[in-house]
Amino acid sequence: MEKELLQQLKARYRLEDIVIVDKHTRTSVSEKTYTDSISEWVSLSLCMEEGTIRETGDRWVYNGEDVMVVLIGRHKYDEGAAASFLKEHEAWLKLLLHHTNEQKRKNALHVLTGVSHTLSSRMYEEGFLQIILDSVVDAVTAADSGFLFLYDEKIGKLLVEAAVGFRDSGYKKTRLKPGEGVSGRVFESGRASLLQGTGSIKEAMETMSAFNYEHYLEAAEERSIPESMLSVPLLFHKETIGVLTLDSFRDHPYLTEHDLHLVEALADHIAVVIMHARLYRQEKRQREALQQTHLALRKEHETMQRTTDFHHRLTNVAASGGGVQGIIQTMKTMVRYPFAVYDALLKPLFVDEEAGEKGLPDRFLSHDRVKKVIKMNKWQQIAHAGEQLVVLPITGPVSVWGFVCVWIDSADFFENDIVLFEYGTTVLSLELTKEDSIREAEQQAKGQLVEGILTGERDPVVEVQASNLGLYPADFYAMVLCHVDPDKMGEEMMTVNSRRQREEIGDALESVVTKLELNGIVSMNRSYVFAMISFPESEGKGSARQKMKALVHMLERSSAPLKAGVGRVHKNLFQLNKSYADAEKCIQVLKTKPSKNVMSFVDAGFYRFLLQNSEEDLSLYVSDFLGPLMRYDKEKNNDMLHTLITYVRFDKDLKKVTKELNIHHNTLYYRINRVQEILDVTFDRFDDWFNVQLACRVYEYLQIEERDVR
């Protein structure tokens, strides 16, 4: 009806537009929006008599009792007739205004109901603030963009929490102080604002900082200043919590007072919903935190129960004499991760089936993390072959005894099972320390017994102790001395506790004695790991020698990193010191034989000549044969003796000698001839060559001894 009546009036007076204004409420009915002009027209009507028409530009203003009508158009018509017509139909015009306002109120109520329903039903969704702004922009027909600001008390500024029609890369950087720009001023004052026209809006935005204005333009892209804008505060319990600002970049229609009132009505509901949503989310976070705490406490309780059970089981195993293997088996039943237990030399004590398929990193003992385990006695984690390996130290009184290696596939290990493994390694450490102490006490007792025997003096107390061990004075005895072979121990192994290396040799020696069913003592002193072997007098010396040969053969095949010297079989317990001396001499000779790991005095061959003569006699022998050459080298600062020793070592093989010395054949011929002249010998004569060979071997042997003394 509204549009039809307006069209009839426009057609009657051939108007471009017609505006009907309520002089009291200043509401209007028209096809276009003339918000800026209404106040001017109402002011003009105050100067006019009722029922008259006055021209102003291309417009004619009719002043009625309660309404005024603005006729817009350039066609001429009878002003008096028009005034009479409008006065006659003023009641209809008032009715039209009333109908239009009622229709707007109904529309506003419908909008409020719809938006309120949306807010209430979706307030718990993610992106709730964006939903709020989208709903309001959709509800206000003239609006095409907008911002929802909320005040951040921590930084004291308004932050954009949602936007429509703006690029997020720009507006997300905006930080408005209270009083800054249109939205900041509305927040500070707590009063709504309606601005129309780019000029007034631009002027209102001049209080923005350069930083915020620049990012506003970036967000607005090519549009910059809107044609109309409204901004309302979000109030909750008389406290402003934010600002809702709507923009229209279109020149028709403008945002109006009606839109402002509508958004103000929505703002109250929006503020309540936002605060309710905040409280809900806060309560939800607290509830989730409480649930997490409950789960953590429950998990902690379960872990504690499991740890306590584990503690009781291990304690019972240790107390009942279950030993190291009992402890390891208990660990296996209580944990789900594959693991292995190694000693300090990486000799496996236990490797479960799954762990056996994985293996340790190359040069394990040289790994930085493993060095840290040894140094700090604290577990470390190592990435290896796409998995995580946790290395825990088994600590001894002085150094690390060994390692527990665990392959893990989950971070849960560090929350649950690491405690079990730490406690398990602690119990292992205590058990191994106990076993070491017992073994050490036994070895000390055996060592003291052997030391008493090696004095060669008959001692009744020593005889009784020996008899208790099945060692009788009249039997036959032999001594085996061993020490660590550095050539069999890589540089990596040599850095580990040497005691463990000696224990490995002791285990190998014990194994050989056991397999051959020999009677004796295996122990160690400061210098050697040793075995004192006894043979019954009734079996005779020949039988004892055969068994010692079998022992030598088994030691030669041993993988243990040892150098072993084996003494001769001697009759009588208190002649054992002679066999000890034999074995010690064999150890000395082995230092000149890197490729040989076991030497028996019986099988020493040429070396028995060395072993059965004193160092003084050997030195005189060398001096008799090589003295002139040694003096020549000293006087001439030459090295002819080295050439001779190399010549002897390669048994006159010229090719090998020249290669070893890196000299020409002619040079070698010259030197050899010169050596023969100095020594007054001829190498083609058997006796001369034999004596020179023997003298060179003795010289090398004495040099080894001299280095050891140093």
List keywords for this structure.
Beta-Lactamase; 5 domains; 25 helices; six-stranded mixed sheet; 710 residues; single chain; alpha+beta; 18% strand
Task: Decide which structural class fits the backbone.
Answer: alpha+beta
CATH superfamily of the largest domain: GAF domain
Average pLDDT score: 82
Radius of gyration: 54 Å
Proportion of beta-strand residues: 15-25%
CATH class of the largest domain: Alpha Beta
Into which percent range does the helicity of residues fall?
40-55%
Sheet with the most strands: spatial strand order: 8-7-6-11-10-9
The counted number of beta strands is: 22
The CATH topology name of the largest domain reads: Beta-Lactamase
- Tell me the span between the first and last alpha carbons: 125 Å
Sequence stretches where pLDDT stays below 50 over 5 or more residues: 491-496
Total individual domains: 5
Just name the CATH architecture of the largest domain: 2-Layer Sandwich
Q: Which word captures the global form?
A: elongated
**Most strands sheet:** 6 strands, antiparallel
Count, helices: 25
Can you put this structure into words, describing what you see?
- This protein has 710 residues and is an alpha+beta fold.
- It has five domains: 104 residues, 2-Layer Sandwich (Beta-Lactamase); 160 residues, GAF domain (Beta-Lactamase); 115 residues, GAF domain (Beta-Lactamase, 2-Layer Sandwich), CATH 3.30.450.40; 157 residues, 2-Layer Sandwich (Alpha-Beta Plaits); 95 residues, Arc Repressor Mutant, subunit A.
- Helix content is 54%, strand content 18%.
- The strands form four sheets. Strands 8-7-6-11-10-9 form a six-stranded antiparallel sheet, with helices on both faces. Strands 17, 18, 19, 20, 21 and 22 form a six-stranded mixed sheet that branches.
- The longest helix has 63 residues.
- The N and C termini lie far apart (125 Å).
- About 1% of the residues have low confidence.
